[in-house]
Amino acid sequence: MAHLYSLVHLTNISCPPPEMIRVAAKAGFDAVSLRTIPMGLPGEKPHDIAKYPQLLRETRQAARETGILLHDTENARIADGVDVANYEPALAAAAELGIRHILSNIWTDNRDFYTEQFCRLCELAAQYKQTVSVEFVTWASVTNLQQVKELLLASGKENVGVVVDCLHFYRSRVRLEELDACPKDWFHYAHLCDCEAPIPTDETSLIHTGRSERLYPGEGAIPIREIISRIPNVVRGVEIPHLARVEKLGYEEHARRALTAAKALMGE
Question: What would the pLDDT profile of 225-234 be if each residue is shown by its tens digit?
Answer without folding.
Answer: 999 999 999 9
